[in-house]
Amino acid sequence: MNERYEVRLRKAVHVFSAGHFITLTDDVCEAVHGHNWTVGVDVAGEPDAHGMVVDFIALRDAVTAVVSRLDHRMLLPTENRWLSVATLPGPTGLPETTVRFRDRRWIFPAEECVLLPVANTSAEWIARWIGGEVLAAFAAAGRPAPPLIRVSVDECLGQHAVWEATVA
Fold first, then answer.
1. Residue 108: how many other CB atoms lie within 10 Å
2. Residue range 116-157, pLDDT digits in tens
3. Sequence-ordered list of residues with C-beta below 8 angstroms from that of 36, at least 6 positions apart, any chain
4. Cα-atom radius of gyration of the chain, to the nearest Å?
């Protein structure tokens, strides 16, 4: 018999409201808009000596901590070759984050932005970033990484992207 064990986490608290835009092509950049993003995380592996693939509470808390950092923020990519993103003091002395795409420019209060080390703030790349942050939280807590992790990010009901990784 071939068995597989998986834990799926879908919590009402794993929703965040955030603004973003993506470069659709080399010449086209979306207008700023936002979503109520919903995050789901699945992990698979062998149950431990206590019969658990992962501690639900530890997984829930790790995901909650990551998602809370994104809530009510502007998500900006730092590795997009078509965008220039810089944070400098503004006219009032408070830091501002300026984003440029060709002849367009956006200025945001820096404290309201999350600069993500991704090429675009697409659901795919956000899912990957969230997964990496969850794995980093497990490592920081001295918890073993699950052999398989899958993160889904919904931009709106029925429209989501999935990132999956096998952890060696």
1. 17
2. 999 999 999 999 999 999 999 999 999 988 899 999 999 988
3. 15, 16, 17, 156
4. 18
Domain enclosing residue 125, as ranges? 6-166
- Residue 109's pLDDT is 97
What are the two backbone dihedrals, phi and then psi, of residue 157, each rounded to the nearest 5 degrees? -50, 125
Length of the chain in terms of residues written = 168
Alpha-carbon gap, residue 6 to 9, rounded angstroms? 10
- Paired sense of beta strands 73-77 and 113-116, if any: parallel
What's the pLDDT score for residue 31? 97
Give the Cβ contact number of residue 15 at 10 Å.
14
Asked whether residue 1 is domain-assigned, the answer is no
Indicate whether 59 belongs to any domain.
yes
Mention every residue, 6+ apart, whose C-beta is less than 8 A from residue 43.
6, 7, 53, 54, 59, 146, 148, 149, 150
Model pTM greater than 0.90?
yes
Evaluated on CA atoms 61, 19, 125, 123, the torsion sign reads positive
Q: Indicate which CATH number applies to the domain containing 147.
A: 3.30.479.10
pLDDT band at 168 (very low <50, low <70, confident <90, very high): confident
Number of domains composing the chain: 1
